[in-house]
Amino acid sequence: MKILQWIYTAYAALLFVLLMLIFGLFIIIPLILSPRGGKISFIFIRLWASIWSFLVGIKYMVHGREYIDPKKAYIYIFNHRSFIDAPVIPMAIQQEVRAIGKKELSNIPLFGLIVSRVAVWVDRKSAASRKASVAILKDILKKGISIVVAPEGTRNDTKQTLLPFQKGAFRIAIETGTSIMPMAVIGSDHIMRRGSLLMKPGKVHIYFSNPIDPEQYSKEDGYINLANKCFNRLEAMILTHE
């Protein structure tokens, strides 16, 4: 059985790279030609993710899209438990978005080059890098583009429902007046389990809820209460649907 899983994982990885080679230029070129090229790029990102997912037998079931106003920018927060969460983002979110990523991922050949156009890389060990990323994210939101953040700060490899939240996204929400959109990802860690590189086909459910308005929270220390509210909401969503 393990041999079959290794074969499947190798097939999925090779297919991922092949599709990246095919769609890479179509993702990069629109963003090079125009700052508004992101919408075109995201068509090809979704095409890349959907073809790969279909060919490897991964299905996505999205619930609660009616809570999303497609004309409004959000800060999407999600529970990060698997490397499979990466294709979940373009499959679940129909808007153009920018995501925060670990700086180490930018060093992966080809992948780093392509994804750098739609990601904000941050070195979480560097205060200067974190500060610079906050400024970039604020600018992105001002342009009406949503951002995606894993507020746990890293992949959750524990048995806890959620790791403690980093507070940066919630400061940004209050300072820019951007609503938080909780997004519970259920099942991705069954496709690629904690501590393993092996994959298997499966189904991922994504749940959205009512957005959380930061307007009532003060700019001084309200981000702590906002983070706590978002933590409780996302935890409840996960526990309800797991």
What's the main sheet like? 7 strands, mixed
Sheet-strand content, in percent, reads: 15-25%
Biggest sheet, spatial arrangement of strands: 1-7-6-2-5-3-4
Q: From the helix content, strand content and strand pairing, which structural class follows?
A: alpha/beta
Number of helices: 8
Name of the CATH homologous superfamily:
Glycerol-3-phosphate (1)-acyltransferase
- Give the N-terminus to C-terminus distance in angstroms: 26 Å
What share of residues is helical? Answer: 40-55%
The H/E string reads: HHEEHEHEHEHEHEH
Mean pLDDT: 90
Shape label: globular
Instruction: Kindly give the count of domains.
Output: 1
Q: How many β-strand runs?
A: 7
Q: Which CATH class applies here?
A: Alpha Beta
Query: In the CATH classification, which architecture applies?
Result: 3-Layer(aba) Sandwich
How large is the radius of gyration?
18 Å
Describe the structure.
This protein is α/β, with parallel strands linked by helices. The protein has a single domain (about 60-240), classed as 3-Layer(aba) Sandwich (Glycerol-3-phosphate (1)-acyltransferase). About 45% of the residues lie in helices and about 15% in strands. The chain is built from 8 helices and 7 strands, in the order ααββαβαβαβαβαβα. The chain has helices at about 1-35, 40-55, 85-90, 110-115, 125-140, 170-175, 190, 220-240; strands at about 60-65, 75-80, 95-100, 120, 145-150, 180-185, 200-210. The protein has a 7-stranded mixed sheet with strand order 1-7-6-2-5-3-4, with helices on both faces. Helix 4 links the parallel strand 3 (about 95-100) and strand 4 (about 120). Helix 1 runs antiparallel to helix 2 and helix 2 packs across helix 3. The mean pLDDT is about 90.
